[in-house]
Design a protein that fits this description.
Length: about 280
């Protein structure tokens, strides 16, 4: 039996629907009608012989098969865009001032930089690492060109790259004493993850005590690795020497986005988003 080829145009429509939660929003992003996007998804499902979306009262949700396909689709589109960029786009030169949220750095920055160097060998990168809200403020002041950071609750700004669970982490073997306040190692006030963690504990009626604070994420992680307390990280940023801790209230999810290209004119944005997703999915 001949294995059919996947149509990149259908995959692009599929990813757009998955990221925007519906056919109408995906059509607006792609410059197509809702019916045209719906037709693409129907053709894709006919090609695969499996449904990729569950149709809900409001919007859609990925089926199990759709969840499997989405990672492949993003990688295929990223590779396609990279090849086209190298073949037909004019070389990108100059300087890109890039802000990167500290939660993204430990496990994901190296593959991102490797991909950027491969795509844009003539581009000079200036990377500033910090907390998302501080980097975004710097971008708004014109001090940075693009920022890879987190959305605040209720925001729609930025281009969504991926969504991840916020998880409680501690050193292997760390024991939570239910009779004592939970010791926390945290970034300073203003950190969204800190706010989410404290709100979740308060809702659960669990006492806590911030016993360690540092403006450096790696220093916070070191405190947790040393057994001084519990902290929260995005699941994609889980570091060696830490493991997910069960039994604590859910802290929700975080959306990692690219900020700074509201007009969508930069030739770097789509390839950059592809590299970001690849850095997460291929680990």
């Amino acid at each position: 039996m001949r294995i059919p080829d996947l149509d990149l145009d259908l995959l692009r429509g599929f990813v757009a629907v998955a990221e925007r939660g519906g056919f109408t929003a995906a059509g607006a992003a792609l410059g197509l009608t809702q019916s045209a996007v719906s037709l693409k998804i129907r053709k894709l499902e006919e090609l695969l012989g499996k449904p990729v979306f569950e149709r809900l009262t409001r919007g859609v949700a990925l089926t199990r098969e759709g969840e499997t396909l989405i990672a492949y689709a993003r990688r295929m589109l990223a590779l396609n865009d990279e090849a086209v960029q190298r073949m037909i786009a004019p070389p990108v030169s100059g300087t890109l001032r890039l802000g990167v949220a500290d939660h993204f750095v430990p496990r994901n920055l190296a593959p991102l930089l490797a991909g950027a160097g491969r795509l844009w060998p003539e581009l000079h990168l200036m990377v500033e690492v910090g907390r998302s809200h501080e980097l975004r403020a710097a971008q708004e002041r014109g001090e940075l060109d693009l920022v890879i950071g987190k959305r605040r609750d209720g925001e729609t700004a930025g281009r969504l790259v991926f969504t991840e669970d916020i998880v409680w982490v501690a050193a292997p073997g760390f024991s939570v004493d239910p009779g004592r306040p939970l010791p926390l190692a945290m970034l300073p006030q203003g950190c969204m993850f800190r706010e989410r963690a404290m709100a979740a504990l308060a809702r659960d009626g669990r006492g806590f005590d911030v016993t360690y604070t540092s403006a450096s994420l790696l220093a916070v992680a070191a405190a947790a690795q040393a057994g001084l307390g519990v902290t929260v990280l995005g699941r994609h940023g889980l570091l060696p020497g830490l493991e997910v801790l069960s039994g604590l209230p859910e802290a929700g999810t975080a959306q990692m986005c690219v900020f700074g290209d509201e007009t969508r004119q930069s030739p770097l944005i789509e390839p950059l988003i592809g590299l970001l997703r690849e850095s997460v999915e291929l680990r």
